[in-house]
Amino acid sequence: MLSGVSIVCFAVSYAVALGLEVSRLLFRSGVRGAAMLAFAGAGLVAHSIFLYHRVVSTPGSPLSSQQDWFLIAAWVLVVTYLYLVYYHSKSPFGLFILPLVLGLIAAAAFFADAEPYARGPASRIWGMIHGASILAGAVAVLIGFVTGLMYLSQARRLKHKLPPVRGFNLPSLEWLQKANARAVVLSVLMLGVGVLSGGILNRITADPNAAPLPWTDPVVISTMLMFAWLVVASGITLAYRPARAGHKVAYLTLASFVFLVIALGASLMFDTEHGNPRTGEEKPAVEETVDLSPSAISTGGGRA
Amino acid sequence: MNVQVVGCSHHDTPISVREKLAFSPEQTLEALDQLRRVFRHVEVVLLSTCNRVEVYIAAAGGELPSGEQIAEFFARFHGLEMEELLPYLYQHAAVDAVNHLFVVSCSLDSMVIGEDQILSQVKQAYQAATDQDTTGPLTHTMFQAALHVARRVAAETGIHTHRVSVPSVAVADFAKQIFESFEEKRTLVIGAGEMAEETLRYLQDEGAHDITVVNRSPQRAVELAERWRGRARDWEELNQAVTDADLVISTTGAGEPVVTLETFREIESNRRQRPLFILDLAVPRDFEPAIADRSDVYLYSVDDLQSACASNRAARDKELPSAMGIVRQESARFMADLHHRATGPVIEQLRRGWEKPKQEELARLLNKLSDLDDRSQEEIRRSFDRLVNKLLHPPLESLRDEARDGIPHSLLDALSRLFKLRD
């Protein structure tokens, strides 16, 4: 019965919830809030069932493939959305978060590779740490992007002295700025763990006879670029307090999003060794080593 | 079943009269107690705010006190002459009374339409009457329906979201959109204009308590600071006070800006780009308009806010017909329910009258068919129940339809005679 749930089921539920969010701008309704929660909640249940089914039917799940990675990132975003809607029911978080959710699901359905990553017992734990931390970092960047957009939109309205738009009651600038700054810190920490664990993964699973995942791999380069950007930007904000305030932190998160898109795009578009079994063509493998790297973006996964 | 309201409001009654008629919370309890003793068998709720004094009276049966009797009670309670009150009192009965309560609860009859204080005042009035045991089934139903209607209007219209006074717009539509909380924010008041006081009241309601006053007259600054539980600073410290502040309300009578762009650049360099909300209520303006272009500065003048007020007023006026539509719809539904409830005893008798022969026939049949198993017996019982319900359905539906326009006395009488329900 569980296998009857498809990606379309929860994507449609989220799309309806997004439609209801858009309708906030058009008319008032006493039941819309409950309907939005019901559709998003139903989508999340279907989404969870789908992932559960993947876990029980696919060795190495969760995070066993590029597709899983995108779907779990979408799942985490939906949970975040429901949490925010519960506490800020009047704010249109869905207008910003649900398109990202649908984008991740679309990437999972149409672009991402559903073939499982190569895996092996030695690197299993590091692979999980690597994949989960990169995923958490990426979701933090997405949340930062959302709060950054909301900040700039709210600041623009206030600067131009415009009255609030019906159905578009954004949180206060102070709240958005705090959320933004926290998202930056979380993304740096999580990506840091992801990069480090990726490096370790590349070492411990290294077949002495196999070539390691090269640092010039597009996924590695793009992820390192994003991480470097976040480290530099966070360093500046720590050293120079005004950089943590107002528009600057919002622009910082928007730029981080661009780096994230580049990193995700690299994993989908370019020919990458990341996540592939690395048996070593020049030197025959002594033992089976497997890349457990569950993420589509990493620095040092992909050892076999 | 009778319902009526007698009272006066800001529409036709001057404040001098409303002041005399107003009931303090203690007086309200005393008045409810007296009303219960004077008018036995009626349910009473007394609503007294600065804009209205109203007595809601209901009785399941029997006569309600007249408007004159209520006026006499008001006059006696407050030691006034009847002639002073009578010209201002209004009286609504039945559906008009219910409609009036709904309109009041939804803040559609308030001085500032859409203000949300009235709903809590209605709740308090209802609670006080319940505590004094002067409410009953009718007033319970009426006031709970009023709260429901107010919630519905709030959810389905934007009547409460559109503020129309400059201070309320400044705080709700702008300051609260910048700051999440005002508890740790520093508010600076420059000058001593009246509107600053009103704005401060809104800010204090939101939790602002760190208030600094700067005035050219140090003595006046100290007086204001004491009144607002803040502290005073010298006029010479104005720049430092702006540097420290998160919110500035400026209302001086100065002929030229007290903070120029040049001065603000110096202030800005020490603020470390913290957001600054400036409400410039002075005419001519106290802050040079170019300051508004600085980063993280949100500067609003009276004109800016008045245009926001005007657009809010227009938006609110657009919502008014739909809010009134909801009230009318709910009033009609409430009255229909109330009338339908009056048919309850006849319906009950009718059901009982049909139940008895049903049970007798059922017993006789089951007695004859004693070899039936339990399942078949149960099926026969259900079939009899369905038959009675189907036979009762048309008269009950007719009663419900007739109850929409009032208690259907003639139909009730006809049913009673047809089915000999008097016994």
In percent, how much strand structure appears in the residues of chain B? 5-15%
Query: What is the count of distinct domains of chain B?
Result: 3
Identify the strand order in the major beta sheet of chain B: 7-6-5-8-9-10
CATH architecture of the largest domain in chain B: 2-Layer Sandwich
Question: What's the level 1 CATH class of the largest domain in chain B?
Answer: Alpha Beta
What oligomeric state best describes the polypeptide chains here?
heterodimer
Per DSSP, the total helix count of chain A is 8
Number of domains of chain A: 2
Largest sheet of chain A: none
Write up what this structure looks like:
The complex is a heterodimer of chains A (304) and B (423). Helix content of chain A is 65%, strand content 0%. Chain A has 304 residues and is mainly α. Chain A has two domains: 1-115; 117-304. The two termini of chain A are 36 Å apart. Chain B is of the alpha/beta class. Helices cover 57% and strands 13% of the residues of chain B. In chain B, the strands form two sheets. A six-stranded parallel sheet of chain B has the order 7-6-5-8-9-10, sandwiched between helices. Chain B has a four-stranded antiparallel sheet with strand order 2-3-1-4, sandwiched between helices. Chains A and B meet through helix 5, helix 6 and helix 8 of A and helix 7, helix 8 and helix 13 of B.
Quick summary:
The complex is a heterodimer of chains A (304) and B (423). By secondary structure, chain A is an all-alpha fold.
